[in-house]
Automatic annotation (TrEMBL):
Pfam families: DUF2325. The lineage of its organism: Bacteria, Pseudomonadati, Pseudomonadota, Betaproteobacteria, Burkholderiales. Belongs to the UPF0751 family. This is DUF2325 domain-containing protein. Residues 1-28 are annotated as: Disordered. Residues 188-222, 266-307 form a coiled coil. Keywords: Coiled coil. InterPro entries: UCP020408 (IPR016772). Transmembrane segments: none annotated. Residues 12-26 have a biased composition (Low complexity).
Length: 448
């Protein structure tokens, strides 16, 4: 999909209360975006699933409901085979039910409300569209997307522009997750399916255990009745009754053994479910780490690409160079690799700066660090190519002389260029207080 399935809202003429273009701005209001009279009167009612734009149903159902839940719910209202239908057929049937607005849409809406009741209550306190969008951004950062997406789409104060922003974020997130973690997602889906199968098996076993317990109670009642009849019958039938009682006791013992066997199997299944759930949580944590790594790598790639474009472009047409902050600055670079260090030296000198290299104690003596730092404007060291003793010594000397030091994620040229670009952006923010704040540092300045 190259564009969202609806027209993007224009925000230049939004009013402060409703989020729609004002009549005084001269902007035409589309019929699909303008609130109806019933919506203006009934502002406190949440939007129903069937009332949303038909192009949003696919993202809502695919994000907020699992395939297992859809297989249990959709066949009650649509002509699909619960066992043999594919996941795509189940998904299409659910979307058609949501668009139709019949009993199936009401059932889907009820299931979503019951599952995400906590998120709906949390979003109810939002007073306007801006606060709703801010809460959506927080949920996007924390990874708790399905509850926030449903609560946002059906909130009574949600505007078309807010829905478009959430839809776009979810659309791009699906691209990133699908491209970088397709194998992890397949594993997670397989674990969810196996988890659902194990839950179904436990339910069947519990039903069987209940049935066996009922049979055991009936057997005991029969035994008690036989004992009562034995006491009332003549002595001639005593041996026959004794044999029957013995057979019943043997049958009861066999049932008790079967009951113990099923109980042990149920406990083993519960332990396996717990292990699979722990594995699923570990996979989700790995997914979050990979997403953070992708964000860092994209920032480094963008910085090195911008630096390369600035270096090969026409000086007369060149925009503001992000490496101009190095002009007339002295940089001390500690650690790293010889190849990348030579490239960093050329970049700094080409930008009009001066750089002093120190390998961190491999060939250069560590005692030269104290002599190399005075007069430096900033100190840079990669955390993957420097030993801990040199890094701790370097931090203490910088704090003593009041010199700013910056750790790099790796000893690559891209990490160095991304740091200089970030420092340049921070310097411009200081010169322009009204400008929006940039990204926070990705490393702790004290511990790396």
């Amino acid at each position: 999909m190259h564009a969202p399935p609806f027209r993007l809202a224009r925000t230049a003429g939004l009013s402060s209360s409703g989020g729609h273009p004002s009549a005084a701005s001269g902007t035409r209001i589309d019929a699909c975006c303008a609130p109806s009279r019933a919506q203006q009167v009934e502002l406190k009612r949440r939007t129903r699933l069937s009332e949303l734009d038909a192009n949003l149903h696919c993202s809502i159902i695919g994000t907020c409901l699992t395939t297992h839940e859809l297989r249990r719910l959709v066949p009650k209202f649509a002509d699909v085979d619960r066992q043999h239908a594919t996941d795509l057929e189940i998904h299409h049937a659910a979307v058609e039910l949501a668009i139709a607005g019949t009993g199936g849409a009401k059932a889907l809406h009820k299931a979503l409300d019951e599952r995400y009741a906590g998120a709906i209550r949390a979003f109810d306190s939002a007073k306007d569209a801006a606060e709703l969008l801010a809460r959506w951004k927080e949920a996007l950062k924390s990874g708790d997307i399905p509850p926030a997406y449903w609560a946002l789409m059906t909130h009574p104060r949600t505007t078309m522009s807010v829905r478009q922003a959430a839809f776009g974020d979810l659309h791009m997130l699906s691209h990133l997750v699908g491209a970088a973690n397709r194998a992890d997602i397949r594993r997670l889906v397989a674990l969810e399916e196996e988890n659902a199968a194990l839950h179904a098996k436990i339910e069947r076993q519990q039903a069987r255990l209940h049935e066996m317990s009922t049979e055991r109670d009936a057997t005991r009642q029969e035994r008690d009745a036989l004992v009562a009849r034995q006491n009332a019958q003549p002595l001639a039938t005593e041996n026959v009754l004794r044999d029957e009682v013995r057979e019943l006791r043997e049958a009861l013992a066999a049932r008790d053994e079967r009951l113990a066997l099923h109980t042990s199997r149920r406990e083993a299944a519960e332990q396996r479910i717990a292990a699979e759930q722990a594995s699923a949580r570990a996979m989700r944590a790995r997914l979050d780490d990979l997403m953070a790594m992708v964000k860092t790598l994209r920032a480094e790639a963008s910085a090195i690409e911008h630096a390369m474009q600035a270096s090969i472009g026409d000086p007369a047409e060149r925009t503001v160079d992000t490496l101009s902050i190095l002009q007339r600055k002295r940089v001390v670079y500690v650690g790293g690799r010889p190849g990348s260090n030579r490239a960093i030296r050329r970049i700094v000198e080409a930008s009009g700066g001066d750089v002093t290299m120190h390998d961190g104690g491999i060939e250069d003596r560590k005692g030269l660090l104290a002599a190399a730092l005075p007069g430096a404007h900033l100190v840079v060291f990669p955390v993957d190519c420097i030993d801990h003793d040199s890094m701790n010594l370097l931090k203490r000397i910088c704090e003593r002389h009041g010199i700013a030091y910056y750790p790099l994620r790796t000893a690559s040229v891209a990490s160095f260029v991304e740091l200089i670009g970030r420092l340049d952006a921070q310097a411009r923010d200081v010169m322009q207080p009204d400008a929006p704040a940039g990204d926070a540092p990705r490393f702790c300045l004290r511990h790396g």
